[in-house]
Amino acid sequence: MLDANHRADEGNAMTSPGSTQPVAWTRASIQREVDALKDEPGAMLPILHALQNRFGHVPDAAVPIIAEALRCTRAEVHGIISFYHHFRTQPAGRHVIQVCRAEACQAVGARQLEAHAKERLGVDYHQTTRDNEFTLEPVYCLGNCACGPSIRVNDDIHGRVTAERLDRLVDDLTTTVVEVK
């Protein structure tokens, strides 16, 4: 929930309510996010989540701000960011596709699906397509084990995904409807 301290900065427009598009960051907007949470117990993870939720990634410029506010080293902040695969240091594509790599999904074809996704999108894990449409990420359980292999596209979980079904999802997300009059 945004409060009075969370407003658009220096010409950056906030997204409309319900929108998932992140806003551009400034040092001031990073500082406000950090200041809002720095006194909470175990503030590091809530701060990192807040930054990623707001900006779509944890900007490099946030590391020294967080370190100073929490009285820790930049290396400690970077260590937390790099340890948790959830945190991104670069903006994600318009759609994030996560392929489950847990054992239950691997037992029913997740490795083949993973290889197909990489080939179809032309990227590896933690990379974004040239057109900024898709970011491919591994995930280590989606809680959909009985319906594997599973993927998450943005916030939607899909089970029993085949290469053909993945192709249809990608096509549906990249297809633009054109109205002809």
Structure explained in plain terms:
There is one protein chain. The chain is of the alpha+beta class. The chain is built from seven helices and five strands. The protein has a five-stranded mixed beta sheet, with helices on one face.
Portion of residues within helices: 25-40%
Could you give the distance between the termini?
42 Å
Query: Helix and strand string, N-terminal first?
Result: HHHHEHHEEEEH
The largest pleated sheet is described as: 5 strands, mixed
Give the CA-based shape: globular
Percentage of β-strand residues:
5-15%
Low-confidence stretches: 1-19
Number of helices: 7
Global mean pLDDT: 88
Which strand order do you get reading across the main beta sheet?
A: 2-3-1-4-5
User: Structural class, from helix and strand content?
Assistant: alpha+beta
CA gyration radius, whole angstroms: 19 Å
Q: How many strands appear in the DSSP assignment?
A: 5
Chain-wise SSE layout:
Elements: H1 27-37, H2 44-55, H3 62-70, H4 74-83, E1 95-100, H5 103-106, H6 110-121, E2 127-128, E3 134-139, E4 151-153, E5 156-158, H7 163-174
Parallel strand pairs: 1-3
Antiparallel strand pairs: 1-4, 2-3, 4-5
What are its keywords?
181 residues, alpha+beta, 39% helix, 7 helices, 11% strand, five-stranded mixed beta sheet, globular, single chain
Question: Briefly, what is this?
Answer:
This protein is an alpha+beta fold and 181 residues long. It has helices spanning 27-37, 44-55, 62-70, 74-83, 103-106, 110-121, 163-174, and strands at 95-100, 127-128, 134-139, 151-153, 156-158.
